[in-house]
Design brief:
By secondary structure, this protein is an alpha+beta fold. The protein has a single domain, classed as Trna Endonuclease, Chain: A, domain 1. Helices cover 33% and strands 23% of the residues. The chain is built from three helices and six strands; from the N terminus they run H-E-E-E-E-E-H-E-H. Helix 2 links the parallel strand 5 and strand 6. It is globular and about 50 Å long. The protein starts with 5 loop residues before the first helix and ends in a 5-residue tail after the last helix. The relative contact order is 0.19.
């Protein structure tokens, strides 16, 4: 069985969203690498989703990507809950199929 990486799922989801004219981008949330110490300065918002976007009606979109068996961190859950509280759409995606189903359910795809 071939191991599927999150970066591959992410690439496929970004391609699918762009094909469907949904404005989106990959969010880099690693922080700033400090060469002198080999450590990182954390990014301002911890737990931010892998893909951020704006749906055609202006609604905020946050997609957290996990490969099969992957678990959300507490910070990721907190971020997704904040988006939901503000009427944004959140998706936890293990594949493109998860994104397709959620967008269809919400009426963004036919």
């Amino acid at each position: 069985m071939k191991l599927i990486y999150e970066k591959d799922i992410q690439r496929d989801i970004l391609s699918f969203l762009r094909l469907n004219k949904i404005f989106c981008w990959k969010n880099n949330n690693v922080g700033i690498y400090k060469k002198e110490t080999g450590s990182y300065i954390p990014s301002q918002i911890q737990g931010i989703s892998d893909i951020i976007g704006i749906l055609p009606d202006g609604r905020f979109l946050a997609i957290e990507i996990k490969r099969e068996g992957g678990k959300l961190t507490d910070k990721q859950i907190e971020f997704l809950n904040n988006i939901k509280k503000n009427n944004g759409l959140t998706i936890i995606a293990y594949s493109v199929k998860d994104v397709v189903e959620k967008l269809q359910e919400q009426g963004y795809l036919k």
